[in-house]
Each structure stands twice: as C-alpha cells, then as structure tokens.
Amino acid sequence: MNGITSAVSGTEKALAFGLNPLVAAILGMLTGIGGGMLRDLLVNEIPTVLRADLYAVAALAGAAVVVAGHVLDLPPTVPTMIGGAALCFLIRLVSIRRGWSLPTADRMEQHLPRQ
Fold first, then answer.
1. Nearest to residue 29, comparing CAs of 4, 2, 1?
2. Of 3, 5, 41, 70, whose CB count within 10 A is highest?
C-alpha cells in the first residue's frame, strides 16, 4: 500500500508545483517505486519491483488517473487520488492473483535465435 500512496501523492505534488503532466506521471511512478523499495529494504526483503511484478505499471496507471483528473480540472482530492490509488491497487491485486508479470531477462533468452 505504501507504493500506491506514494505514486498518487508524488504525482499530485508534482502537478501542484506546475510540472508538465507527462513528467508528473513519470515522477509519480518513480516515487511509488521508491516508496515500495524503501519499505522492502527496511524489512530486509528483495524489492518487489525487481521481481518482475507489475509494480511499476500499476504505479504509472495510478499516476495517469491523477494526471487525467488534473487535465480535466477535477478536484485533486476525492475523485482523482482515490481513483488513482484504487486502480493501482486493483492492477496489483489482479496481477498477483493471476500470476501476471513482465518478462525477465532469463525468459527472454529462450525466445532469441541461436547463433
């Protein structure tokens, strides 16, 4: 949950400082990844983002909802922040339940042509 709230609040803070919406979404994603990595390091675990989960994708999707709300001039608190956090949480939940993950280098090597 820490990465989710970090992504949403990081995006909102970047928009409050007047950054470009695209830059704000990327900054929000990086803030979410950083918050999750800090959490994992404090409990002495391998960071989730390094284990090929859909962690960064979920953080970017949540940040995109916040940016979309900003572009549509919605109030920054209730609809956009809660919507962004909910989307991020749902993507993470579904990806964990269904075993979805991004390709890793060892799985990619299986598909490369032999020389």
1. 4
2. 3
Q: Give 60-93 pLDDT, tens digit per residue.
A: 999 999 999 999 988 777 788 889 999 999 998 9
Longest Cα–Cα distance in the chain: 57
Both tokens of 31, joined, read: 């803030």
**Three-state DSSP class for 77?**
coil
How far apart, in whole angstroms, are the C-alpha atoms of residue 81 and residue 89? Answer: 12
Q: What was the pLDDT predicted at 50?
A: 77
Q: Which of 79, 82, 80, 78 is nearest to 24 (CA)?
A: 80
Q: Which segments in the chain show pLDDT lower than 50? A: none
Contact of 66 with 15, CB cutoff 8 Å: yes
Closest by CA position to 84, among listed 101, 69, 95: 69
Can you give the pLDDT at residue 45? 87
